[in-house]
Amino acid sequence: MAELLEQLAMCVERGKVNASSPYPPDLKGQDGADELAKRALAEGIPPDDVLSKSLMIGMGNIGQKFSENKVFVPDLLMAAKAMTTAMAHLKPFFESGEAHHRGVFIIGTVQGDLHDIGKNLVAMVIEGGGWKVVDLGVDVSSEKFLAAVKENPGCVVGLSALLTTTMVNMENTVKLVKEYDPNTKVIVGGAPLTAEFARKIGADGYSPDPQGALNDLSV
Amino acid sequence: MDPIRKELESKKVLVSDGAWGTFLAAKGMQPGECPELWNLEHRDDVFDIARSYAEAGADMVSTNTFGGSRFKLEHFGLAGRAAEINEVAAAISREAVGPGLRIFASVGPTGKILMMGDVTEEQLYDAFKEQVVALERGGADACCIETMTAIDEATLAIRAAKDNTKLEVISTFSYDKMADGSNRTMMGVSPAQAAAAALEAGADVIGANCGQGPDGLMDIVKELRAAAPDAPILVQPNAGAPVRQGDVDVFPETPESMARYVPGLIDAGANIIGGCCGNTPDHIRAIVTAVRQTIKQ
Fold first, then answer.
1. Are residues B78 and B84 in contact, defined by beta-carbon separation less than 8 angstroms?
2. How far apart are the first and last CA of chain A?
3. Could you say which residues of chain A have pLDDT below 50?
4. Which fold has domain A2-96?
5. What residues 28-57 of chain A have any CB closer than 8 A to a CB of chain B?
6. Rounded-to-integer distance, Cα A153 and Cα A165, Å
7. pTM to 2 decimals?
8. Hey, is A105 helix, strand or coil?
9. Phi, psi dihedrals of residue B245, rounded to the nearest 5°
10. Which one of A103, A195, B54, B227 has the fewest beta carbons within 10 angstroms of its own beta carbon?
11. Partner-chain contact A68 B116, CB within 8 Å
12. Which tens digit of pLDDT belongs to each residue from A169-182?
């Protein structure tokens, strides 16, 4: 059982989606995250264990390597793809309440900004960390963020911006959310951001990479 | 128009132009606006940018088409007008600089990631084909497939231009500096890998733009030169990393400080020097002077 969970974690980390996938070349022909997740559940491993003792381990490993510049966007994307494929088998268990998310994470790129690659990476890594992710997309107004917060009490909010010119909208969103509920945690990120800027606008956290954001949520 | 290689034989080092995005912002473009729509709705402003760089002494001037692919224009509901917008943009630059100056039209990333299955190779190729054909029709001499990070996307664009137009093709990538000092695009591509792939796909000129300032790009030029001893290299650094001061972005490198990097960039192997974000006509003017002085020696 432990070996199966280890194999599954490895498939997520290495981006081995399923048996027919040609990537990575050295795992060609072997079962991937798809087959192993299905088998783990069929063998009676609790869905929460599949998540926390396998999928999250795999994503955590690749997320850490990404933050250390040891792997790059393609590796993270493939790992996320493997994880999403495995998560599809867990979906009915989340719906029935047998498996549990860590919480709800609302994410979006702020108003005026259309960049989404970074935001998508963070969403994938945080989902890989066991959170339910609500992705509002790009060019998201403060009002739209607030509406999502109201719909998801107890959520955490993540704001992304790549343009220095849209960082002001980040400040507006933090303000609006905190006015509604000062206890709603808001974290921020994006290439032009700094910890200092995050502090200045009243955000609760800043990370230069997705794994850092996940670690922030787990505190 | 002579090929770039031929012009380099006599002139040794050429100067390209500076920033367009930050110049448009200085002219009042707001975050969230479609820059390429300005070709249709603020023609005079776009004309002025091209003209300013020509007057500053640039040997080649670009176009307001960085986000001109149908995929990028889709965000603004303008995908159906991609060909029109690109043709008009090239025509504006041509009118602004006159018949004798080289127009190297901007072709930026589509924002789609092939490996995620966002699009097929055929769809990407077709979008780039649409763009470069229209740019050539509007009067471009070359296309600059710039700020790329993925080899698959860049080579599709290079092939689309080579297969369907007579445009010379410049291929530049954008790199981040890693913790260990090496340079990689966000997709993990090294300068050596990019150089090999671009040249194999048919690029006439290779290079790097954006991402870092002149000191960072100097290292990248060295790597490109080592990987491709004979290829012309274009480098367009940012004027440093921007710092937000109140409502504006301030780029730390002045025309004088940018110009000081010129001898080093030429030494590293750069054949064409210009600037990306934050570089103004004054920066280009200073670079032109520095290039002339350096070549005399």
1. no
2. 30
3. none
4. 1.10.1240
5. none
6. 30
7. 0.93
8. strand
9. -120, 100
10. A195
11. no
12. 999 999 999 999 99
- B170 to chain A, closest Cα gap in Å: 25
Chain B residue closest to A192 (CA)? B242
CA distances B186 to A43, B108, B148, Å, are: 40, 15, 10
pLDDT at A166: 87
Taking residue B282's Cβ as centre, other Cβ atoms within 10 Å add up to 15
Q: State which H helix or E strand residue A41 sits in.
A: helix A33-42
Q: B242 at the A interface (CB within 8 A)?
A: yes
Phi, psi of B172 (to 5 degrees): -125, 145
Distance from CA of A73 to the nearest CA of B (A): 5
Q: Are A58 and A10 in contact (CB under 8 A)?
A: yes
**β-bridge partners, B273:** B15, B235
What are the structural domains, with CATH classification, of chain B? Answer: 4-296 (3.20.20.330)
Partners of residue B208 on adjacent β-strands: B173, B235
Comparing C-alpha atoms, which of B128, B137, B142, B97 is closest to residue B5?
B142
Q: What is the mean pLDDT of residues B31-53?
A: 97
Please answer yes or no on whether A165 and B184 come within 8 Å at the CB atom: no
Which amino acid is residue B51, in one-letter code? R
CATH 3.40.50.280 fits A104-217, yes or no: yes
CB atoms within 10 A of CB A79: 29
Q: Which residues pair with B15 in a beta bridge?
A: B273
Which structure tokens are listed for A178?
């905190």
Q: Which residues of A touch B244 (CB under 8 A)?
A: 164, 167, 192, 197
Domain positions in chain A are 2-96, 104-217
A197 touches chain B (CB under 8 A): yes
- According to the 3-state scheme, what is the secondary structure of chain B? CCCHHHHHHHHCCEECCCCCHHHHHHCCCCCCCCHHHHHHHCHHHHHHHHHHHHHCCCCEECCCCCCCCHHHHHHHCCHHHHHHHHHHHHHHHHHHHCCCCEEEEEECCCCCCHHHCCCCHHHHHHHHHHHHHHHHHHCCCEEEEEEECCHHHHHHHHHHHHHHCCCEEEEEECCEECCCCCEECCCCCCHHHHHHHHHHHCCCEEEEECCCCHHHHHHHHHHHHHHCCCCCEEEECCCCCCEEECCEEECCCCHHHHHCCHHHHHHHCCCEECCCCCCCHHHHHHHHHHHHHHHHC
CB B58 within 8 A of CB B90: no
The two three-digit tokens of residue A122, written as one number = 């963070």
The interface predicted TM-score of the complex, written ipTM, equals: 0.86
| pLDDT 10s digits, B76-114 | 999 999 999 999 999 999 999 999 999 999 999 999 999
**CA pair distance B20, B46, nearest whole angstrom:** 9
- State the smallest CA–CA distance between residue A75 and chain B in angstroms: 9
